[in-house]
Amino acid sequence: MDIATLRSDPRVVIARDVLRFSDCDSLGHVNNVVFATLCESGRVRFAEERLLSHLPDGSAIVLARLAIDFRRELHYPGEVETATWLSRVGRSSMTLSQAILSGDTMAATAEGVIVAIDLGTRKPVQIKGEARAALEAAMMG
Asked: With contact defined as beta carbons under 8 Å apart, do 82 and 6 qualify?
Protein backbone atom coordinates (compact mmCIF):
# COMPACT_ATOMS: atom_id res chain seq x y z
CA MET A 1 0.00 0.00 0.00
CA ASP A 2 1.35 3.42 -0.84
CA ILE A 3 2.03 6.14 1.72
CA ALA A 4 -0.70 8.53 0.55
CA THR A 5 -3.32 5.79 0.86
CA LEU A 6 -2.14 4.87 4.35
CA ARG A 7 -2.34 8.47 5.52
CA SER A 8 -5.83 8.99 4.10
CA ASP A 9 -7.59 5.67 4.83
CA PRO A 10 -9.94 6.03 7.84
CA ARG A 11 -9.23 2.41 8.88
CA VAL A 12 -5.58 3.30 9.50
CA VAL A 13 -4.48 4.81 12.81
CA ILE A 14 -1.36 6.98 12.70
CA ALA A 15 0.92 7.30 15.74
CA ARG A 16 3.56 10.04 15.62
CA ASP A 17 6.93 9.81 17.36
CA VAL A 18 10.07 11.93 17.52
CA LEU A 19 13.39 10.18 17.02
CA ARG A 20 15.89 10.77 19.83
CA PHE A 21 19.66 11.00 19.69
CA SER A 22 19.80 7.98 22.01
CA ASP A 23 17.91 5.92 19.37
CA CYS A 24 21.07 5.83 17.21
CA ASP A 25 23.67 3.08 17.19
CA SER A 26 27.40 3.14 16.38
CA LEU A 27 26.61 3.12 12.62
CA GLY A 28 24.83 6.47 12.95
CA HIS A 29 21.35 5.26 12.14
CA VAL A 30 18.35 4.45 14.31
CA ASN A 31 18.89 1.03 15.89
CA ASN A 32 16.66 -1.84 14.80
CA VAL A 33 15.24 -2.33 18.30
CA VAL A 34 13.76 1.19 18.08
CA PHE A 35 11.66 0.01 15.14
CA ALA A 36 10.03 -2.51 17.52
CA THR A 37 9.31 0.35 19.93
CA LEU A 38 7.72 2.37 17.12
CA CYS A 39 5.57 -0.65 16.27
CA GLU A 40 4.52 -0.85 19.91
CA SER A 41 3.57 2.83 19.89
CA GLY A 42 1.38 2.22 16.83
CA ARG A 43 -0.15 -0.95 18.28
CA VAL A 44 -1.04 0.71 21.56
CA ARG A 45 -2.63 3.70 19.87
CA PHE A 46 -4.58 1.43 17.51
CA ALA A 47 -5.76 -0.70 20.42
CA GLU A 48 -6.88 2.33 22.43
CA GLU A 49 -8.75 3.88 19.49
CA ARG A 50 -10.17 0.82 17.74
CA LEU A 51 -9.91 -2.47 19.65
CA LEU A 52 -10.27 -2.32 23.40
CA SER A 53 -13.86 -1.10 23.37
CA HIS A 54 -14.84 -4.26 21.46
CA LEU A 55 -13.30 -6.71 23.93
CA PRO A 56 -15.25 -8.26 26.80
CA ASP A 57 -14.87 -6.73 30.27
CA GLY A 58 -11.96 -8.26 32.13
CA SER A 59 -9.91 -8.89 29.02
CA ALA A 60 -6.83 -7.37 27.43
CA ILE A 61 -4.52 -7.98 24.50
CA VAL A 62 -0.99 -9.35 24.46
CA LEU A 63 1.56 -9.52 21.69
CA ALA A 64 2.23 -13.05 20.41
CA ARG A 65 4.37 -12.31 17.34
CA LEU A 66 6.16 -9.39 15.72
CA ALA A 67 7.92 -9.51 12.33
CA ILE A 68 9.65 -6.43 10.91
CA ASP A 69 10.98 -5.93 7.39
CA PHE A 70 13.56 -3.14 7.36
CA ARG A 71 13.50 -1.15 4.10
CA ARG A 72 15.40 2.10 4.75
CA GLU A 73 17.52 3.63 7.47
CA LEU A 74 16.16 6.23 9.84
CA HIS A 75 18.35 9.03 11.18
CA TYR A 76 18.29 11.53 14.04
CA PRO A 77 16.87 14.14 14.11
CA GLY A 78 13.54 13.23 12.67
CA GLU A 79 9.90 12.43 13.13
CA VAL A 80 8.15 9.24 12.12
CA GLU A 81 4.62 8.00 11.72
CA THR A 82 3.58 4.44 12.40
CA ALA A 83 0.51 3.49 10.37
CA THR A 84 -1.41 0.58 11.88
CA TRP A 85 -4.43 -1.29 10.57
CA LEU A 86 -6.30 -4.51 11.25
CA SER A 87 -5.65 -7.13 8.56
CA ARG A 88 -7.08 -10.33 10.07
CA VAL A 89 -9.43 -11.44 12.83
CA GLY A 90 -9.03 -14.99 14.11
CA ARG A 91 -10.74 -16.96 16.86
CA SER A 92 -8.95 -15.08 19.67
CA SER A 93 -6.18 -13.39 17.74
CA MET A 94 -5.91 -10.41 15.44
CA THR A 95 -3.20 -9.46 12.97
CA LEU A 96 -2.12 -5.86 12.75
CA SER A 97 -0.18 -4.64 9.75
CA GLN A 98 2.08 -1.62 10.12
CA ALA A 99 4.26 0.74 8.12
CA ILE A 100 6.86 3.08 9.63
CA LEU A 101 6.96 6.27 7.60
CA SER A 102 9.46 9.10 7.52
CA GLY A 103 8.30 11.85 5.18
CA ASP A 104 7.80 10.20 1.80
CA THR A 105 9.84 7.13 2.75
CA MET A 106 8.55 3.80 4.02
CA ALA A 107 11.34 2.80 6.40
CA ALA A 108 9.81 -0.53 7.49
CA THR A 109 6.76 -2.72 7.35
CA ALA A 110 5.68 -4.99 10.15
CA GLU A 111 3.09 -7.55 11.12
CA GLY A 112 2.05 -8.22 14.69
CA VAL A 113 -0.27 -10.87 16.05
CA ILE A 114 -2.11 -9.94 19.21
CA VAL A 115 -4.27 -12.24 21.31
CA ALA A 116 -7.27 -11.32 23.45
CA ILE A 117 -6.87 -12.84 26.91
CA ASP A 118 -8.94 -13.06 30.07
CA LEU A 119 -7.11 -11.08 32.76
CA GLY A 120 -8.09 -13.54 35.49
CA THR A 121 -7.13 -16.80 33.80
CA ARG A 122 -4.53 -15.34 31.39
CA LYS A 123 -5.99 -17.61 28.70
CA PRO A 124 -7.22 -16.60 25.24
CA VAL A 125 -10.83 -15.46 24.92
CA GLN A 126 -12.86 -15.88 21.78
CA ILE A 127 -13.79 -12.81 19.73
CA LYS A 128 -17.43 -13.26 18.82
CA GLY A 129 -20.76 -11.65 18.14
CA GLU A 130 -20.98 -7.90 17.72
CA ALA A 131 -17.29 -7.47 18.57
CA ARG A 132 -16.26 -9.78 15.73
CA ALA A 133 -18.64 -8.08 13.29
CA ALA A 134 -17.31 -4.62 14.20
CA LEU A 135 -13.70 -5.68 13.88
CA GLU A 136 -14.26 -7.48 10.58
CA ALA A 137 -15.98 -4.38 9.23
CA ALA A 138 -12.91 -2.29 10.14
CA MET A 139 -10.46 -4.70 8.51
CA MET A 140 -8.26 -3.87 5.54
CA GLY A 141 -7.34 -6.77 3.26
From this structure: no
